[in-house]
Design goal:
The protein is an alpha+beta fold. The protein has a domain at 269-457: Up-down Bundle (Butyryl-CoA Dehydrogenase, subunit A, domain 3), CATH 1.20.140.10. Helices cover 49% and strands 15% of the residues. It is built from 18 helices and 15 strands. The strands form 4 sheets. Strands 1, 2, 6, 7, 8, 11 and 12 form a 7-stranded mixed β-sheet that branches. The protein has a 4-stranded mixed β-sheet with strand order 5-9-10-13. A two-stranded antiparallel ribbon has the order 3-4. Helix 6 runs antiparallel to helix 9 and helix 11 (349-374) crosses helix 15 (408-422). The longest helix has 38 residues, at 267-304. The chain is globular and about 75 Å long. It starts with 5 loop residues before the first helix and ends in a 6-residue tail after the last helix.
């Protein structure tokens, strides 16, 4: 109970979980080279002995115990801002554990329909918090033929569903896609992928289950190979995390772990709750990344001696605008926070969705501006091995000479980071996740239409046109 440690976290993963990667069944992920970097990433969130990070990583619970701040339910703007500070510091494994904020934010609505489910949410939250566990966000179904509803598919398992019920619990069958860090967490927190309607009761299901539960299997894929040179791959070498396809092959979920089992009106409530917190974290990451892109662009033009070139200044101005608008939306979402009936504070839904939409819809343009400034060396720059070669190295140093005072190795590191972030392993992952994480652009459009006061805008337009209220 209480705060854990790096070693205890690693030992906890030796629990018989079923994991596949690159055509291999991996019996112990803590000893496999594919998991070396992902485990190092996840373990950083257990660095509680680091005095500089402890206040960011932890908070004092209502019982007087210390817990990881990812479990702190915000009740004020100050606590919401502390959560964002944590988001900038913790790993993506800690980030997806924020799924418990989604659960806690819907607890009041769930209680109105089924108090037992609400009690299960509260109990599961305490269980995970008090043991310092990590959890994943398990939401996206296979979906099959998108023109058909869940219960109309050729194979009923193309949407996760309840296959059986008994006094012991529910048995679920199906799969969930794109599950970040699924093999690295202790709990798989499952929610419906969308709103379900009459006839789809078996597909309206939410629960939490241990990763080593019988019948649960994970097939992994990562954007980066397990071993990369940190000079040539300054981002991918340190940040790779596998995405999992999580298979539920007749998994028994005890009733005390069930949050939803057939109440279709609540399915959309669960799906939307996860979207809000996932998009908030995505917006925070986007703000940090956009500001990094501004810095990289500035360094490139300084190295090339073209700080005053109009085209360079224009491109950097576009990047500054992009970064500042994202940061402004994030700050506004916290200042204009909203609350649940039980007092939980969460970011403004409209501000988060508008900000996430702007970030995602314009990310490719920001990448284009950075790559345009950096030039072709982003792709054709020789590797560190060539730089260190006694014969090839001197040529590289000679012909990569740029503005006086620019260190060639520094220049190479900056160009390598641009390539890794925008045109290689990590960059490819970001190009897709900028659009798809937290739901594609359509998901933000739907939420903006739902939350914007469109009737007030229409009334204002009527008044401006000189039309009196009827």
């Amino acid at each position: 109970m209480g705060l854990s440690s790096r070693q205890a976290y690693r030992e906890s993963l030796r629990d018989g979980r079923v994991t596949f990667w690159d055509g291999e069944s991996i019996s112990d992920i803590t000893e496999h080279p594919n998991f070396r970097v992902p485990l190092d990433v996840a373990e950083r969130d257990y660095d509680y002995d680091d005095a500089k990070r402890r206040d960011i990583l932890t908070y004092r619970t209502e019982t007087g115990e210390d817990a990881n701040r990812v479990y702190q339910v915000p009740t004020s703007e100050a606590e919401l801002l502390q959560r964002l500070e944590l988001g900038a510091e913790m790993s993506i494994v800690g980030g997806v554990t924020g799924v418990f904020m989604a659960l806690m934010s819907v607890r009041d609505e769930v209680a109105e329909v089924n108090p037992r489910y609400a009690e299960n949410i509260q109990s599961m939250y305490h269980f995970a918090r008090d043991r310092d566990l990590r959890a994943s966000e398990v939401i996206t179904d296979a979906k099959g033929d998108r023109s058909r509803r869940a219960h109309e598919q050729d194979d009923p398992d193309l949407y996760l569903h309840i296959a059986d019920r008994s006094d012991d619990g529910i048995v679920v069958r199906g799969a969930k896609f794109h599950i970040t860090a699924a093999s690295l967490v202790h709990e798989q927190v499952v929610m419906p992928t969308k709103s379900m309607r009459n006839g789809e009761e078996d597909y309206a299901v939410a629960f939490s289950i241990p990763t080593n539960a019988p019948g649960l299997k994970i097939i992994n894929r990562s954007f980066a190979p397990p071993e990369l040179n940190a000079f040539d791959y300054p981002a991918s070498a340190h940040h790779s995390i596998p995405e999992g396809m999580v298979i539920f092959d007749d998994v028994l979920v005890p009733w005390d772990r069930v949050f939803l089992a057939g109440e279709t009106p609540l399915s959309g409530v669960f799906a939307r709750s996860l979207g809000l917190w996932e998009r908030t974290l995505g917006l925070l990451e986007a703000a940090e990344r956009a500001e990094l892109m501004v810095g990289l662009a500035q360094l490139v033009v300084e190295h090339q001696g073209k700080e005053r070139k109009p085209e360079a200044m224009d491109a950097i101005s576009e990047l500054i605008c992009y970064a500042h608008i994202i940061r402004t939306h994030l700050e506004a979402a916290c200042r204009r926070y909203e609350s649940t009936p039980s007092g939980m504070v969460h970011p403004n839904v409209l501000d988060v969705n508008v900000g996430k939409y702007y970030y995602a819809a314009n990310y490719h343009t920001a990448v284009r501006n950075l790559q345009d400034i950096a030039g072709g060396l982003v792709l054709t720059l020789p590797k560190e091995a060539d730089l260190r070669h006694p014969e090839a190295g001197p040529y590289i140093r000679k012909y990569l000479h740029a503005k006086e005072g620019t260190d060639v190795e520094v220049r190479m590191r900056i160009l390598n980071l641009i390539r890794d972030l925008t045109a290689d392993a990590f960059g490819g992952w970001h190009l897709v996740t900028s659009l798809q994480a937290g739901g594609g652009l359509i998901a933000q459009r739907i939420m903006m239409n739902r939350t914007y006061d469109i009737r007030a805008a229409a009334k204002k337009a009527m008044a401006a046109a000189g039309v009196r209220d009827a």
